[in-house]
């Protein structure tokens, strides 16, 4: 690791730096062979993936109940779990081989994290994870689908934190109506880590409508009749 990158990693992870190094080493050693990352990503794991994920922690309130949807290689979930052990974090992933990877990482790093196999839109998952404070997602789906899948996992007023690329603002404008129909309000684009990263992390934030609980209750009452 170059000294400049190490300095940034130490600044971001602080006392948890050694665990971040251990996680990145696991990804370096096993990520390509297990289909978690592409071969070209190995040399830029810190900047493009690990630090890119960890800096999003600045958007998440203390002690939040967080679900990382489509966790895959563990991004952003595992860097968040490392830098913020105060979070009640669940890694949600549908693919068995990736669930196995996530479980191995959690055990190896000694993290207090739940790994759950499933898809965000499944009723059994919603039953377990609904009323979460924050849902994160990185390179999972376009914003319209992401809102439809993720917003039902949030409590009213909860926050979807979607890590996106340079076209984030265009995506917010394009999918505004779909997000609204899914129960999202106050969609906006922000960035994280500008003081430590050469390329700050671009994030789309979407709140779940505060009125969602009343609408959900009305739907349940209609179904029960």
From TrEMBL:
The gene is rsmG. InterPro entries: rRNA_ssu_MeTfrase_G, SAM-dependent_MTases_sf. This is Ribosomal RNA small subunit methyltransferase G. It is an enzyme of class 2 (transferase). Specifically methylates the N7 position of a guanine in 16S rRNA. GO terms for biological process: methylation. Keywords: Cytoplasm, Methyltransferase, rRNA processing, S-adenosyl-L-methionine, Transferase. Belongs to the methyltransferase superfamily. RNA methyltransferase RsmG family. It comes from Saccharothrix longispora. Its main location: cytoplasm. GO terms for molecular function: methyltransferase activity. Its EC number is 2.1.1.-.
């Amino acid at each position: 690791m170059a000294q400049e990158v190490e300095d940034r990693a130490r600044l971001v992870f602080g006392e948890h730096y050694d665990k971040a190094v251990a996680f990145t080493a696991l990804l370096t050693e096993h990520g390509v062979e297990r289909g978690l990352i592409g071969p070209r990503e190995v040399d830029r794991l810190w900047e493009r993936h690990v630090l890119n994920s960890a800096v999003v922690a600045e958007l998440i309130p203390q002690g939040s109940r967080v679900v990382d949807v489509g966790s895959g290689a563990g991004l952003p979930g595992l860097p968040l779990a490392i830098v913020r052990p105060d979070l009640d974090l669940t890694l949600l992933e549908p693919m068995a081989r990736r669930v196995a990877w996530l479980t191995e990482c959690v055990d190896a790093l000694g993290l207090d994290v739940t790994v759950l196999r499933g898809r965000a839109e499944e009723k059994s998952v919603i039953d377990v994870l609904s009323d979460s404070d924050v849902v994160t997602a990185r390179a999972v789906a376009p914003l319209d689908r992401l809102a439809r899948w993720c917003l039902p996992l949030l409590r009213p007023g909860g926050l979807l934190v979607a890590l996106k690329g340079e076209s984030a603002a265009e995506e917010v404008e394009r999918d505004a109506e779909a997000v609204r129909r899914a129960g999202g309000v106050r969609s906006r684009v922000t960035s994280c880590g500008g003081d430590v990263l050469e390329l700050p992390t671009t994030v789309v934030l979407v709140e779940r409508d505060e009125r969602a609980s009343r609408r959900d209750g009305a739907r349940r009452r209609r179904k029960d009749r």
